């Protein structure tokens, strides 16, 4: 008789494929030989792809070959907190347990890598208006065979966009100072351990920066319609960056030296000693006790207060204006008496202030809703005048003006 051996056939797939000892960046794959060897298994091909079964992440498929006598192999390097699919093919001299695949097989093993633990005891200190010191401790339990490359610190401005990271820092130690922050703003800091390119779980802390001096008020102006001989109204807009809680505005008014036209400089002002302080709830103020025909300059600052300490903005201004000449005041206490159908007696008191000598008085009558006007002149200086030729049963209003040789309060 003759002895012979048939050729090797197709092996069945490896059995009892499991993934264990899962770590953030590695795992162990274990298996048993195929139930039907149909020859001698020379190698096992191990395929690994990131993503769920049937939904791989493009470009992440990799494979390696291990000996047919092996029953386990390490899967690395992996990424923390990622899901992977793994499958195996047994290969003998002639055949494979599965043909070449264009998609994931149905019997893949799915696993998720763990995360590096988050740092501990994160806290902030030495908070200023624009910086903060932050410190933390290494995770309590960390693989002894893994070297920490550093820490990733992320900065978020909670007032503007809590979900948008505004800064990412790589720190080698366990403390740092974060600078160039905005005053009186809420922030969130997140820190995570970094191993190579992998980043672990984050721990976080929130804080608020301190107040700072506000930016200068804007659009300072003197309302030309309000300028009188001794008063004027100033308006402005709030600072674009309050940098805290605005408490007051402080105004400074300085007369221009009349003989040489010198204008005071804002840098020469004592910002703690102004002419007028108003609440931050208003953006207008009336200046009083000015001199007629006086030339003035005005500035304004905004003020925050922290524990009785004033945080004063840069100076806004100056704006310049000139008060009007002083005018006579009108006659006082206008009265009517002896009213008939066609006449009335009007009396009044002298003006409180007169520039010059009163030479006449003028009476202005208005009726028909103010649309009809008639004038009477009293060329004498008496404080009474009887006016006739009125219309019967008509409502009138009367105004008395005093005239001097040079000027008057109304004509």
Count of distinct strands: 29
> On the 0-100 scale, what is the average pLDDT?
87
Task: Provide the low-confidence segments as ranges.
Answer: none
Number of helical elements: 0
Overall 3D form: elongated
Radius of gyration: 46 Å
The helical percent reads under 10%
Hey, roughly how much beta strand do the residues contain?
Answer: over 45%
What is the first-to-last residue Cα distance? 149 Å
> From the helix content, strand content and strand pairing, which structural class follows?
mainly beta
Biggest sheet descriptor: 5 strands, antiparallel
Topology pattern, helix = H, strand = E = EEEEEEEEEEEEEEEEEEEEEEEEEEEEE
Structural account:
- It contains no helices and 29 strands.
- The protein is mainly beta and 411 residues long.
- β26 and β27 form a beta hairpin.
- The chain is elongated, with a radius of gyration of 46 Å.
- 21% of the residues are buried.
Defining traits:
411 residues; mainly beta; five-stranded antiparallel beta sheet; 0% helix; 47% strand; elongated
Can you summarize this structure?
The chain has strands spanning about 15-20, 25-30, 45-50, 55, 60-65, 70-75, 85-90, 110, 120-125, 130-135, 150-155, 165-170, 175-180, 185-195, 200-210, 220, 230-235, 245-255, 275-280, 285, 295-305, 310, 315-320, 330-335, 345-350, 360-365, 370-380, 385, 395-405.
Task: Summarize the helices and strands and which ones pair or pack.
Elements: E1 15-20, E2 27-32, E3 43-52, E4 55-56, E5 62-67, E6 72-75, E7 83-91, E8 109-112, E9 120-125, E10 132-137, E11 150-157, E12 165-171, E13 175-178, E14 186-195, E15 198-208, E16 218-222, E17 232-237, E18 246-255, E19 276-279, E20 284-287, E21 295-306, E22 309-312, E23 316-322, E24 332-337, E25 344-349, E26 358-367, E27 372-378, E28 384-387, E29 396-404
Antiparallel strand pairs: 1-2, 2-6, 3-4, 3-5, 3-7, 7-8, 9-10, 10-13, 11-12, 11-14, 14-15, 16-17, 17-20, 18-19, 18-21, 21-22, 21-23, 24-25, 25-28, 26-27, 26-29
């Amino acid at each position: 008789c003759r002895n012979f051996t048939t050729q090797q056939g197709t092996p069945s797939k490896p059995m009892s494929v499991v993934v264990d000892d899962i770590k953030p960046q590695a795992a162990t794959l274990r298996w048993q030989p195929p139930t039907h060897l149909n020859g001698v298994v020379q190698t096992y091909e191990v395929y690994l792809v990131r993503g769920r079964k049937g939904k791989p992440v493009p470009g992440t498929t990799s494979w390696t070959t291990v000996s047919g006598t092996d029953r386990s192999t390490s899967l690395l390097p992996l990424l923390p907190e990622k899901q992977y699919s793994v499958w195996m093919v047994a290969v003998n001299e002639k055949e494979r347990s599965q043909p070449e695949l264009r998609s994931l097989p149905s019997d893949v093993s799915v696993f998720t890598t763990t995360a590096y633990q988050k740092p501990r005891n994160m806290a902030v200190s030495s908070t200023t208006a624009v910086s903060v010191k932050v410190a933390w401790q290494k995770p309590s339990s960390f693989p002894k065979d893994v070297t920490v490359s550093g820490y990733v610190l992320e900065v978020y401005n909670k007032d503007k966009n809590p979900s948008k990271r505004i800064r990412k820092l790589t720190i080698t130690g366990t403390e740092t100072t974060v600078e160039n922050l905005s005053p009186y703003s809420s922030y969130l800091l997140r820190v995570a351990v970094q191993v190579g390119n992998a980043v672990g779980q984050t721990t976080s802390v929130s804080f608020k920066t301190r107040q700072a001096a506000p930016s200068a008020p804007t659009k300072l102006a003197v309302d030309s319609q309000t300028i009188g001989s001794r008063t004027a109204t100033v308006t402005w807009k709030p600072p674009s960056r309050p940098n805290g809680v605005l408490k007051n505005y402080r105004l400074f008014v300085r007369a221009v030296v009349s003989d040489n036209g010198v204008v005071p400089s804002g840098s020469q002002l004592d910002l703690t000693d102004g002419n007028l302080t108003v609440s931050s709830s208003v953006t207008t103020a009336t200046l009083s006790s000015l001199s007629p025909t006086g030339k003035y300059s005005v500035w304004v600052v905004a003020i925050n207060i922290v524990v009785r300490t004033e945080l004063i903005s840069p100076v806004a201004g100056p704006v310049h204006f000139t008060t009007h000449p002083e005018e006579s005041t009108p006659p006082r206490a206008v009265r009517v008496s002896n009213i008939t159908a066609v006449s009335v007696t009007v009396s009044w008191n002298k003006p409180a202030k007169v520039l010059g000598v009163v030479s006449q008085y003028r009476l202005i009558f208005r009726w028909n809703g103010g649309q009809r006007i008639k004038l009477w002149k009293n060329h004498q200086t008496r404080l009474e005048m009887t006016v006739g030729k009125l219309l019967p049963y008509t409502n009138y209003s009367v105004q008395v003006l005093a005239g001097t040789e040079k000027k008057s309060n109304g004509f």
